[in-house]
Write a structure and sequence with these properties.
488 residues; alpha/beta; Aldehyde Dehydrogenase, Chain A, domain 1; Aldehyde Dehydrogenase, Chain A, domain 2; 7-stranded mixed beta sheet; 19% strand; binds 1,4-dihydronicotinamide adenine dinucleotide; binds magnesium ion; oxidoreductase activity, acting on the aldehyde or oxo group of donors, NAD or NADP as acceptor; Ald_DH_N; Aldehyde_DH_dom
Length: 488
């Protein structure tokens, strides 16, 4: 096929113990470009055998050069890899644009975030010290932060580089050896990153990458008794399976499972400042974002105004191929497009009409998985559009009467990942920040700056455990308490 992507390397290999090898039997999976629906390459279809070899290699690395590397040197190495990522932003962004349909500007931002994770965590590696604890007479007690050992990382297709950065970056910082199973829809930047890391001198086996299907390579990684910690970002259903597998081996697991995150706009909000956040947090990455703000709660007095202003912005949004860098690219797959269109059809049957839609230029390639950004006004908080994670460029505006009702609606889903509050009233800012059930609350902003430094994770069905910031480093290590009696 003439449209094969020149990635600059053989994409059909796994990285195991520092060696690039094909999956047993030469098994591969297609790489689809969601902007066109065309196959543009192949990746390895790793399975149980590759996972076993990767876990072995990680254990060997823990007992060898990687395990013995002093923290300062580990940090320096991570920072060096971060700089190399920075130098390769264009290459990585192009791979991502073709692999997952992410518009180039957004793909570049992801690559930059990956570099920033490595810079941030690299700088932290030699600062993760323990404590001394006052204890009985003739005792000295101190704590050590030790790596878990081998960490398993199962990541999704929506923000491959960012999630790799926060998860693998933090695990390596603490001296763990990682086995990464990227999503079958999005393995190219994980493989490219691994090449960069190896060129920078990462010891063999510290990072192993085994692409493959969730039910094959993913399930094998979760079930492997040699894995000491699992980090997972993805769907609720798969998260449940992963926690069950982790229970068999009694290992800790971090689950980040998405949300239905609200932004709450009070009557006194600065709408000029709020508007770009209200819209971008819903349509960024075509709404395929765990922390997407898919619900906009607006005090009734300003509901119609917010509908009008958001509608203007929606009508200016354009949809198109990732490489053309429009506001919104395609969805990841035909399956994801069907899920999102199912929600829109259900709304239609229930008599809900969109208040505004984005534009789909005729130049959008045939076969791409495009969905027009779609905005609904005056939606009942009980409707599926306002309750379920859609994972597409769809937002609903919900009116509320007062603070109490805003809190009830905001907390009225099974999820609790992120929330935004827009008000100038200082007391209300604090009351809302405390009353909302979620892992993060942004006041008069929403996710500004990317938040590498800010601990992130959910409550309720959004999952548990925290990644990003220093908190991730606690999660990727185990605390050992040493009590020394030194009496005569
Ligand atoms: P998924 O949760 O099945 O896939 C995420 C990762 O888990 C992939 O690497 C996949 O290979 C792996 N996986 C799947 N089954 C597994 C198993 N049995 N054992 C171990 N690993 C397994 O999500 P999928 O199917 O790609 O998307 C379905 C829905 O999930 C989306 O429509 C969206 O609503 C949600 N989602 C949420 C994400 C988030 O950021 N929270 C990311 C991706 C999807
Ligand atoms: Mg793909």
């Amino acid at each position: 096929m003439s449209e094969l992507l020149d990635a600059g390397f053989d994409t059909s290999q796994c990285l195991i113990g520092g060696r690039w090898i094909g999956a047993s039997g030469g098994r591969t999976l297609p790489v689809e470009d969601p902007s066109t629906g065309h196959e543009i390459g192949r990746i390895a279809r790793g399975g149980k055998a590759e996972i076993e070899a990767a876990v072995d290699a990680a254990q060997t690395a823990r007992n060898g050069a990687w395990g013995q590397m002093p923290a300062a040197e580990r940090g320096r190495l991570l920072a060096k890899i971060g700089r190399a990522v920075e130098e390769n932003i264009e290459w990585l962004a192009k791979l991502e644009a073709h692999d997952v349909g992410k518009p180039l500007t957004q793909a570049r931002a992801d690559a930059r975030a990956l570099a920033r994770y490595l810079e941030f965590y690299g700088g932290a590696a030699d600062k993760m010290h323990g404590e001394t604890i006052p204890y009985l007479g003739d005792y000295t007690v101190f704590t050590l932060r030790e790596p878990h050992g081998v960490t398993g990382h199962i990541i999704p297709w929506n923000y491959p580089m960012q999630i790799l950065g926060r998860s693998v970056g933090a695990a390596l910082t603490m001296g763990n050896a990682a086995v990464l199973k990227p999503a079958e829809e999005a393995s190219l930047t994980a493989l490219a990153f691994a090449r960069i890391a190896m060129e920078c001198g990462l010891p063999a086996g510290a990072l192993n990458v085994v692409p493959g299907l969730g039910e094959e390579a993913g399930a094998a990684l979760c079930a492997h008794p040699g894995v000491n910690h699992i980090s997972f970002t993805g769907s609720l259903e798969t998260g449940r399976k992963i926690q069950q597998a982790a229970a068999q081996n009694v290992i800790p697991v971090t689950l980040e499972l998405g949300g239905k995150s609200p932004q709450i706009v009070f009557g006194d909000a600065d709408l000029d400042r709020a508007l770009p956040f209200l819209v971008n947090a819903g349509i960024q990455n075509a709404g395929q974002t765990c922390s997407a703000s898919s619900r906009i709660l607006v005090e009734a007095s300003r509901h119609d105004e917010v509908v009008r202003l958001m509608s203007e912005r929606y009508r200016a949004l354009t949809v198109g191929a990732a490489i053309e860098d429009q506001s919104v690219g395609p969805l990841i797959s035909e399956r994801q497009k069907n899920i999102v269109q199912g929600f829109l059809a259900e709304a239609d049957e229930d008599g809900l009409a969109p208040v505004a839609e984005g534009q789909m230029p005729k130049s959008a390639p045939m076969g791409g998985h495009y969905v027009r950004p779609t905005l609904y006004g005056d939606v009942d908080p009980g409707h599926a559009l306002a309750r379920d994670e859609i994972f597409g460029p769809v937002q609903v505006i919900i009116p509320f009467r007062d603070e109490e009702e805003a809190i009830a609606i905001a907390n009225g889903t099974d999820y609790g990942l992120v929330a935004g509050v827009w008000t100038r009233d200082g007391g209300r800012q604090m009351r809302m920040a405390r009353a909302i059930r979620s892992g993060q609350v942004f006041v008069n902003n929403y996710g500004a700056g990317g938040g590498v430094e800010l601990p992130f994770g959910g409550v309720g069905k959004s999952g548990h455990g925290r990644e990003k910031g220093f908190e991730a480093l606690y999660g990727f290590s185990a605390l050992k308490t040493v009590a020394v009696w030194h009496g005569r």
